[in-house]
Structure formats: C-alpha cells, structure tokens
Fold this sequence. Notes:
Layout: E1 3-4, E2 9-14, E3 20-21, E4 24-25, H1 44-60, H2 69-80, H3 86-102, H4 110-116, E5 129-133, E6 139-144, E7 147-151, H5 154-185
Antiparallel strand pairs: 1-2, 2-7, 3-4, 5-6, 6-7
Helix pairs in contact: 1-2, 1-5, 2-5
Amino acid sequence: xxxxxxxxxxxxxxxxxxxxxxxxxLPDFNDFHFNTKTTSSMSDDxxxxxxxxQAKKDQAAGKFQTQSTAYKNLLKSYxxxxxxxxxxxxxxxxxxxxxxxxxxxxxxxxxxxxxxGKITYEKEVDLTYAEFTDSNGEHIATYSNGGWTFYGTKxxxxxxxxxxxxxxxxxxxxxxxxxxxxxxxxxxxxx
Length: 191
C-alpha cells in the first residue's frame, strides 16, 4: 500500500526488539521499504539487463513485482544508490539527542537519599516524535510513538520509476510472448 505524499511515498512500520538508542527502536534498514545509501553493485546498463531478466523470470513463474523476493532485492539495490544515508543521519541525530539529555539527568542514589534526606532527580526524556531531513532539506523519515515513517526523496522516486518502467515493459513483453506461444499450441482443430 502506498500513501501519496507531496514528493513521494510514505511507509510506516513499528519495530520491537531492534537495536535501540535511548527509548527509540532503530528501524531495520534491511527491510525492503527502508533504503539507506549504498554503493552501486553494477552499472546502470547492467542493472537494466538484470531488471529485464528478472521480469522475464517473474512472468514465467506467475509473479509480478513485490510477489518476488528477487525483484524486491534488485529494486532495493537499484534505488538505494540514490538514497540519503538514512542510517547515519538517524543514528547520529538520536545519539546526540540522548547524549545531550544524559548530562542533565541524575540517577537516584539511595545512599544520598538516606543520609541527606533530599535528592534532585530529572526523569530521562522519552522521545515520542522526531523528524529527519537530508542535506537537501528533503523530509526522509519521521519517528512517532514507537513507529517509523519513511519518505522517498525525489531522487529515489525518480530511480524507482525508471526501474518500474523497464520492469513493467519487459514483464508485459514476456507475457505477450508466452500468450502468443500458448495460443498457437493449444488450438484444437477438428476435421
């Protein structure tokens, strides 16, 4: 499902048991939907060849787009080349938020409480909402009440559209080719 946004799409996920910074569970950047910057594993021409081959394989297997794990992996590799470094930006921002908060927080020392009778205490901040932007000022993620929403950047969306254009055309061509082959071989001619 896609939720349309002004500059792309948003995907919302909840995470539990993942690595945490403060009270915030970090997103799983291996998840199909959450891209972070990677280096290209092949040239764009090689990617185009791989996309066409994947479309043919998927069509032959009766799968289309996200029904195929290989499709999802190839798309993630192709789009992440244009992705911002979400993992680095989010990790650095959260680390700074909680590091700066720790200097203001004192843990209760029960010995001091018994000896002196009074203590100062500040509750550690629980982060409930944060917005993240890349170096271009594009909104890339939001954390809200335990869930992450990721937004595709203009560059990511353009790259995904390129991928889909090549894939869909190749898949349609493979379907037409298969259709024409089966229509000739399955004719029953009565004489």
